[in-house]
C-alpha cells in the first residue's frame, strides 16, 4: 500500500491494475453445533497482474489467517467460531476486500446446522424434510415418527410443534396420529373423500351382481375408512380399508347385490364410508319385478279412515248419516280393488245396518255364498255372516243359536278380537261394563291392538269411571287412545287427573295423556297434576317450563314449584322481569344452580325498581358474585354481576387471578359428533386443561396466549388437531377489567414470565452474539468501558461499538474510539466521518484511512471534502497528500472527472508554497482555470506554472485560453495545436498536409507522435494567413488500425509580431514593399544573432 502511494505521489501511475473476479459470490457456511468452521475463498485476476489487498470481515466470529493477501490467484483462509450458537442460527455477513483491483463485498451466510436423522432418502432435519419423506415413503416416515430420534428433528423447530409431538407421544403414535401431527403443523391439508355420484340404480336382478364405486381422495396421507351397508341385499368385499390401499388418488370399492334378499318393488340400500372426519353415503336402489299392484295398501288405508271417522261419530263430532255415506263410498272403493274379499262384502253390509239401511244390508247378505262345511271357508268370516243375519232378523231363538255358534268358534280362536266383539254385542251379560272390561283385559293378553277394541274399553270407563283402579299397561293404552282421539269426557278427565296425582313416580305416558286432557279442558286440577308429576320426575328441560309458568301464574301451592320454574326456564328467551312472587320466594336463600341463581339476581338488577327488594338481596348477591368469581364461572347473567360488584378497591390477588382467568375464557364448539373432551396445550407445552365436551353447550377453556393449541379427543380415543373445524367464542372481554388486571400485574409483579435473566457482559456477548441483546445495554457497556478504562485497540470492543453505531447508538466517547481505530469498508468509514464531523470530533485519522484505502483500491468517489478535512489538519502526510492530488488530477485530465474547486485551491496553495507536486497536478490546475475566472491570489501561480509546463514542452490545447501576453511569452500565441486521446497501449501516427492559398499539395506527411502524458498526444503547427491544415490520425494497437475522420484547421487570426508574424505580413504586401520588408528582416536577423548568443 505504501509503495503504491509513493509511486502515485511522484506521478507514476504505471502500476498495472488487476481485473478481479471471485470464484464464488456468496459463501454458505454449514456449521455443526459447537464447531469451528474452516474455510477459504479465492480471488483471481483475469490479466497477469498480481493482486494485493486486505480483507475486513463483518462478524467478530470470523478470524482471518492473514488479513493481507498477495498473488494471482490469492487464497484467503478464515475460520468461523460457531461455539455458543444454537442450531438454526443464521448470520448474514460479508467480507470487504480492498485490493489493487478495487473494493468488493463478498457476502457469506453462516448457518448452524440443525441435528438430523439419516434415512434411506437422505437427511431429515426439519418438519419440511419430514413432510417430503412422508410423501415419498409414508411407512418409513411413520417409523421415524414413532422413534425418539424424532425429538432431534423438532428440538429447534417452533415450540408449538415440539410440544404437540411431545404430548402426542403420550396418546398415540400410529399412522392416524402422524396424519394429525402433519395437519396440525400445517405441513399438509386434511384428507377428504369424494364420490363420483349420489348412487346407483339396478333393475330386475336375477343373480348376484357386482357394482363398483370409486372413492377419490384430495391429497396424500393416511386415514382409515370403515365401510358399512344398510340393506340386507348389499354386501361389500372389505369393510376396513385405508388410503394406503388407494392407487394414486382412487380406490374402487366392490359391492354385491344379492337377489335372494330382494323383495318385489323398490329396494333401498346405502353404502356408508366412515372416516374420522366425515361420513359419505352412496345410495343403491333396486327395482325388482315391477309388475306388482301399486294399490295393494289402499284397502287398508281406506278401512283405517272408516274407523277413524267412526270414532269421530262416537265422540259426537260427526252425525251418523255423514259417517255412513262416507263409509259406504270408501267400502265401495275397497271392493272394487278386492273384488273377491267376502270379509269386505260383510263389512259393507254391517255399515248399512249401522246406518239403518236394512234393505241394502239384506241384499248383500242374500248374495253372500254361505256354506258352513265348505272346504277353505274362514270360520270367523262365517261367524261374521251369522252375526249380521242375527242382527237383521232380531229373533231370540235364532240369536241364541248364533251366539252358541260364536262361543264354540271363539273357544277354538280365542285370539280373534272380531269373534269377541260379536259375542259382546250379542250376549246380554256384557251390557255390564265391569264384565265387558274384564273380558277385554283378558283379550289384551292375546296382543289385540284393534281400534274398536280400545274404543269398547274406553266406553266402559266412560260409563263407570270408578272401574279405573290402576294405571297399568292396558289402562294406559286405552287412555292414550281416548286422549289421542279426543274422546274423553270432562268427568273422566278430572277423574284421571285425580288418580294420576296419587302416583308416586313420573310416567311419560301419563304425562302425555294429561297434556292432551289439559288441551281439551284447561282445568286447574289437571294442571296441578301435571306439575306435580313433573316435579316428581325431576323434569327440568325447557320444554316443561310453560307448565311451571302457568302454575306460578295460577299461584299454585306445590312444593318446589318455584325452584323448577327457575331451573326449566330458558334464560336466552326470557324477556322482562320475573314475577314478583319469585323475587319474594328466593329472598332468604335458595338451592338453585349457579346459572339460574345468577339469572335471578341479574334480572332483579336489570328490571326491578324496588329499592327495598334490592337491599334485601344485596348481601347475598355480593357474596354469590365473589364465590362465582373464585370458581371462574361465566354466563351472560354473571357478566352483569361482575360489572356491578367487582370494584377495584375490593380486588385482591386471588380475585385478580380469577378475573384474569375469566377474561381469557372461551367457549369452543364443533359440529363433528362424538367428541369426548377438549385439551389445551399451553405455550410452555403443559397440558393443564382437559375439559369434558357437551354437544349442546360445548366446553369452556382458557386461552392465555395465541400460541396455545386446542386438541380434541373423540369417544373412540382419537385425537384431532386442526383437522376438524371448530368455533371459539370469547365469553367475557371487558377492557376495564383487562386494564385492572394489567395495572395490578405491574404493581404487584403477578404473572410475569419467569426465566433466567441473562446479564449483558462482554463474555455473554462473545458467546451468544448480539441476537436478542438489548441495544441500549450493549451501548452503555461499550461506552463505559471506553470512558473508564481506555482499553486501546480491542477487536471485539471495536466490533460491538461499530455495530451499535450502525444502529444509531453512539456518543462522543464511542465515536472518538471508532475514529481512532476503526478500519473497514470505505462506505462505512465515510459514514463514520460524516457523523464525527456533525459532533465536531477530530476526524482526520478516519479521513487519512479513507483516502489511503481509496487510493490503494483506485476506487475514489465523493471524497473531496474528506481530503480537505485531512489536508487542513496539522498531521497530513505529504506523500499521501501528493498521491491523492496526483491521482485525482490524472482522473480529471484523462477521464474528465468532475472535482470540487477545493481540490484545485489546494493544488494552487501547494504550488504557491513551492511544495513538490507531480506535473500532472500543475497541468490539471492550468486546465481547470483556462478560459474561466480565477481568484487574483493564484494568478501569479498560474502564470508561473504556464511558463514551467511550456519549458517542459508539456503543452495542452487548454493553455490557448490564457492571456495573450502570457502566450506570447511562452511562444504559443502563433501556434495551432492538434490533440488526440488514444486507447491505452496504442501507437498514434499523424497524417497531415498544409495547403497555401492557390497552391496544391500532393500527398500527406506522416509523423509518429509521442504522448505528452500517458495516452494524450499533442502536435503544434504554425500556419500563415493563407494556409490551412488538413489532417487525420491513425491509431494502432498492434492488431488493427483505425483512422479518424479528416479535419481541416484554418488560421483565422493575424499574428503581427515575432518572426513568423513578420513573414506572415510579407505574404500580403505588394512586391515593392515586400522587397523592402525582406531587407529590413534580414538586417534585424543579423543583428539578433550578434546580440543574443546561444549557449550549449
UniProtKB/TrEMBL annotation:
Domain DUF5717 span(s) in chain numbering: 1-751, 794-1092
InterPro entries assigned: DUF5717_C, DUF5717_N
Record-given protein name: DUF5717 domain-containing protein
Organism: Dorea formicigenerans
Amino acid at each position: 500500500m505504501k509503495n503504491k502511494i509513493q509511486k502515485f505521489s511522484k506521478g507514476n501511475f504505471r502500476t498495472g491494475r488487476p481485473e478481479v473476479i471471485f470464484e464464488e459470490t456468496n459463501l454458505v457456511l454449514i456449521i455443526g453445533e459447537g464447531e469451528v468452521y474452516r474455510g477459504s475463498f479465492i480471488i483471481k485476476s483475469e490479466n497477469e497482474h498480481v493482486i494485493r489487498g486486505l480483507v475486513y470481515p463483518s462478524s467478530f466470529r470470523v478470524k482471518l489467517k492473514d488479513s493481507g493477501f498477495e498473488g494471482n490467484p490469492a487464497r484467503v483462509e478464515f475460520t468461523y467460531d460457531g461455539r455458543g450458537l444454537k442450531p438454526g442460527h443464521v448470520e448474514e455477513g460479508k467480507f470487504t476486500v480492498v485490493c489493487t483491483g478495487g473494493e468488493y463485498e463478498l457476502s457469506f451466510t453462516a448457518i448452524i446446522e440443525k441435528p438430523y436423522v439419516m434415512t434411506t432418502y437422505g437427511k431429515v432435519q426439519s418438519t419440511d424434510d419430514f413432510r417430503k419423506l412422508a410423501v415419498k415413503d409414508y411407512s418409513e416416515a411413520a417409523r421415524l415418527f414413532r422413534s425418539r430420534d424424532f425429538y432431534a428433528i423438532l428440538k429447534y423447530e417452533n415450540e408449538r410443534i415440539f410440544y404437540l409431538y411431545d404430548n402426542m407421544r403420550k396418546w398415540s403414535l400410529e399412522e392416524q396420529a402422524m396424519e394429525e401431527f402433519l395437519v396440525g403443523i400445517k405441513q399438509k391439508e386434511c384428507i377428504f373423500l369424494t364420490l363420483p355420484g349420489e348412487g346407483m340404480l339396478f333393475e330386475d336382478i336375477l343373480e348376484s351382481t357386482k357394482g363398483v364405486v370409486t372413492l377419490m381422495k384430495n391429497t396424500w396421507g393416511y386415514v382409515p375408512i370403515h365401510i358399512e351397508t344398510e340393506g340386507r341385499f348389499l354386501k361389500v368385499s372389505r369393510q376396513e380399508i385405508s388410503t394406503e390401499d388407494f392407487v394414486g388418488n382412487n380406490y374402487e370399492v366392490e359391492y354385491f347385490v344379492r337377489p335372494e334378499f330382494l323383495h318385489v318393488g323398490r329396494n333401498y340400500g346405502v353404502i356408508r364410508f366412515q372416516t374420522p372426519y366425515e361420513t359419505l353415503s352412496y345410495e343403491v336402489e333396486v327395482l325388482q319385478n315391477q309388475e306388482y299392484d301399486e294399490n295393494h295398501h289402499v284397502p287398508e288405508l281406506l278401512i283405517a279412515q272408516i274407523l277413524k271417522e267412526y270414532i269421530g261419530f262416537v265422540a259426537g263430532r260427526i252425525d251418523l248419516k255423514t259417517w255412513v255415506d262416507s263409509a259406504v263410498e270408501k267400502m265401495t272403493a275397497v271392493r272394487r280393488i278386492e273384488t273377491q274379499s267376502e270379509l269386505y262384502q260383510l263389512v259393507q253390509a254391517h255399515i248399512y245396518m249401522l246406518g239403518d239401511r236394512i234393505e241394502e244390508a239384506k241384499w248383500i247378505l242374500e248374495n253372500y255364498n254361505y256354506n258352513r262345511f265348505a272346504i277353505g271357508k274362514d270360520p270367523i268370516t262365517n261367524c261374521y255372516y251369522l252375526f249380521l243375519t242375527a242382527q237383521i232378523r232380531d229373533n231370540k231363538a235364532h240369536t241364541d243359536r248364533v251366539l252358541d255358534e260364536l262361543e264354540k268358534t271363539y273357544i277354538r280362536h280365542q285370539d280373534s278380537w272380531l269373534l269377541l266383539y260379536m259375542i259382546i254385542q250379542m250376549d246380554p251379560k256384557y251390557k255390564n261394563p265391569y264384565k265387558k272390561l274384564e273380558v277385554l283385559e283378558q283379550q289384551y293378553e292375546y296382543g289385540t291392538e284393534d281400534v274398536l277394541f280400545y274404543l269398547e274399553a274406553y266406553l266402559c270407563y266412560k260409563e263407570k269411571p270408578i272401574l279405573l283402579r290402576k294405571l297399568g299397561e292396558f289402562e294406559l293404552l286405552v287412555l292414550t287412545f281416548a286422549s289421542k282421539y279426543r274422546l274423553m269426557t270432562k268427568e273422566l278427565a278430572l277423574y284421571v287427573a285425580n288418580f294420576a296425582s296419587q302416583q308416586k313416580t313420573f310416567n311419560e305416558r301419563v304425562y302425555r295423556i294429561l297434556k292432551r286432557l289439559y288441551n281439551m279442558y284447561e282445568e286447574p286440577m289437571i294442571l296441578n297434576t301435571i306439575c306435580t308429576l313433573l316435579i316428581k320426575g325431576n323434569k327440568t328441560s325447557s320444554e316443561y317450563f310453560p307448565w311451571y309458568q302457568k302454575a306460578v301464574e295460577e299461584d299454585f301451592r306445590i312444593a318446589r314449584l318455584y325452584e323448577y320454574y327457575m331451573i326449566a326456564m330458558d334464560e336466552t328467551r326470557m324477556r322482562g322481569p320475573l314475577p314478583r312472587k319469585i323475587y319474594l320466594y328466593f329472598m332468604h336463600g335458595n338451592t338453585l344452580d349457579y346459572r339460574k341463581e345468577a339469572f335471578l339476581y341479574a334480572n332483579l338488577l336489570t328490571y326491578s325498581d324496588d329499592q327495598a327488594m334490592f337491599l334485601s338481596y344485596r348481601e347475598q348477591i355480593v357474596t354469590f358474585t365473589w364465590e362465582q368469581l373464585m370458581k371462574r364461572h361465566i354466563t351472560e347473567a354473571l357478566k352483569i354481576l361482575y360489572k356491578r360488584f367487582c370494584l377495584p378497591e375490593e380486588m385482591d390477588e386471588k380475585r385478580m387471578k380469577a378475573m384474569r382467568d375469566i377474561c381469557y375464557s372461551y367457549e369452543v364448539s364443533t359440529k363433528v359428533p362424538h367428541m369426548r373432551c377438549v385439551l389445551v396445550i399451553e405455550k410452555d407445552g403443559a397440558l393443564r386443561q382437559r375439559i369434558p365436551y357437551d354437544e349442546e353447550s360445548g366446553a369452556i377453556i382458557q386461552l392465555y396466549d395465541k400460541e396455545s393449541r386446542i386438541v380434541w379427543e373423540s369417544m373412540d380415543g382419537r385425537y384431532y388437531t386442526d383437522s376438524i373445524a371448530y368455533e371459539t367464542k370469547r365469553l367475557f372481554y371487558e377492557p376495564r377489567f383487562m386494564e385492572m388486571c394489567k395495572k395490578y400485574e405491574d404493581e404487584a409483579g403477578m404473572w410475569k414470565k419467569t426465566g433466567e435473566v441473562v446479564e449483558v457482559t462482554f463474555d455473554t456477548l462473545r458467546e451468544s452474539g448480539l441476537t436478542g441483546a438489548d441495544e441500549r445495554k450493549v451501548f452503555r457497556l461499550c461506552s463505559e468501558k471506553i470512558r473508564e478504562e481506555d482499553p486501546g485497540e480491542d477487536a471485539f470492543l471495536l466490533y460491538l461499538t461499530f455495530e451499535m453505531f450502525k444502529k444509531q447508538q453512539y456518543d462522543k466517547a464511542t465515536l472518538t474510539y471508532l475514529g481512532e481505530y476503526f478500519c473497514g469498508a470505505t462506505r462505512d468509514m465515510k459514514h463514520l466521518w460524516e457523523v464525527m464531523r456533525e459532533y465536531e470530533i477530530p476526524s482526520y485519522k478516519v479521513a487519512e484511512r479513507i483516502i489511503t484505502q481509496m487510493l490503494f483500491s483506485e476506487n475514489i468517489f465523493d471524497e473531496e471534502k474528506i481530503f480537505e478535512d485531512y489536508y487542513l489538519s496539522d498531521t497530513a502526510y505529504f506523500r499521501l497528500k501528493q498521491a491523492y492530488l496526483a491521482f485525482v488530477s490524472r482522473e480529471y485530465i484523462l477521464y474528465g472527472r468532475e472535482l470540487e474547486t477545493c481540490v484545485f485551491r489546494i493544488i494552487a496553495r501547494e504550488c504557491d508554497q513551492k511544495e513538490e507536486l507531480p506535473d500532472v497536478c500543475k497541468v490539471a490546475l492550468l486546465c481547470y482555470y483556462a478560459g474561466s475566472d480565477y481568484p487574483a491570489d493564484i494568478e501569479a501561480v498560474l502564470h508561473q506554472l504556464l511558463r514551467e509546463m511550456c519549458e517542459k514542452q508539456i503543452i495542452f490545447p487548454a493553455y490557448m485560453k490564457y492571456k495573450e501576453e502570457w502566450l506570447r511569452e511562452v511562444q504559443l500565441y502563433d501556434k495551432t495545436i492538434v490533440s488526440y486521446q488514444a486507447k491505452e497501449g496504442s501507437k498514434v501516427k499523424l497524417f497531415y498536409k498544409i495547403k497555401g492559398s492557390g497552391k496544391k499539395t500532393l500527398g500527406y506527411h506522416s509523423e509518429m507522435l509521442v504522448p505528452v502524458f500517458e495516452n494524450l498526444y499533442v502536435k503544434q503547427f504554425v500556419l500563415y494567413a493563407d494556409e490551412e491544415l488538413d489532417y487525420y490520425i491513425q491509431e494502432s494497437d498492434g492488431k488493427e488500425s483505425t483512422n479518424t475522420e479528416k479535419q481541416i484547421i484554418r488560421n483565422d487570426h493575424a499574428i503581427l509580431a515575432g518572426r513568423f508574424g513578420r513573414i506572415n505580413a510579407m505574404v500580403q504586401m505588394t512586391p515593392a514593399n515586400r522587397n523592402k520588408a525582406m531587407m529590413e528582416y534580414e538586417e534585424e536577423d543579423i543583428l539578433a544573432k550578434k546580440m543574443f548568443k546561444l549557449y550549449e
